[in-house]
Amino acid sequence: MSDNMTTSTVIFDGNVFSLNAVKKAAYRHLKAFTADISIIDKQIQCVLTFPTPLSEKGRLQVENEFKKEVLDQDLREQLHVETAAVRNVILAHAFSKTGLTTDEPVSDN
Predict the structure, then answer these.
(1) Between 56-82 and 19-28, two packed helices, what is the crossing angle to 10 degrees?
(2) Domain spans of the chain?
(3) CATH C-level class of 6-96
(4) Please, are residues 5 and 49 in contact by the beta-carbon 8 Å criterion?
């Protein structure tokens, strides 16, 4: 690793946040840093490598944005799971009106 690159480590509790949420958040921040993600003792460790040197203030700002994004992605996953049954009912109802769920042809009305 080059001496002019800034790195930082951010750790998330694997009992609180999903690995998938951390990956999605890291992907959304690809312009700001690359992330080497590993799991160590139920902790999700992210070593962030910034392409250009950052001040301490700049590094902390990016880390905080990353943490917010991880929380956002984790909550989105949770909402997706919690609302799956309702979405499936709505989709089933919508498709039941199209003829796509039966062998009957759709009328030309």
Answers:
(1) 130
(2) 6-96
(3) alpha beta
(4) yes
